[in-house]
User: Fold this.
Amino acid sequence: MRQRLVRISFWLGTAATLVSALLFLASIALCVRSYFRIDELRSVSLPSEGHPRDMTLISHTGQVRLVWIRHAFQYFNGDPFPSLGRNWATQDNHFGKLFPGDTTLGFRFLSEARSMQRNGRPVRIYEINAIGVPYFAIALLSAIPPAIAIRHWQRHRATLRKGLCPFCGYDLRATPDRCPECGRATVTRFLL
Assistant:
């Protein structure tokens, strides 16, 4: 039973490392692309309370940004409200800042509400919240599991090359088939 759990955890760890390595490569590719193209994935929904919600994921100038807007009556720039559902758009990157906000180490934060006067009372038009995360932060975080796996693999190869038990580190040159220290059967091949 224990051996089965070890195998399952090994394969889950390997799968997580591969997914992390793919995320690392994708974040680098998307970072380069974001300086030439603006990619936008938008989802507009109408919840039960009747105020439309607009969630947008934007790739722009080295950042991925999540923008969510809660509308009260109309779209924030006076245009008609976008159609409900999901859509994907891409365009050339000829804009400067896509949205303002405080920037710290490439991270961007924005939270504001716009209102207007209607019958002498302020009426909220929309609330906008946005978070921008630089691609370099995603790349650095996603590079950690593959780096740990590569280092573990290098140490394992060095252990086998020296003729040591991969489990306890005992010298196996006298008994290469079974470790006299921990009693486990070992692989007798030595790597160059």
The first strand starts at residue 37 and ends at 45. The helical segments are 2-34, 135-162. The beta strands are 37-45, 53-60, 63-71, 85-92, 102-104, 107-118, 121-134. Residues 2-34 form the longest helix (33 residues).
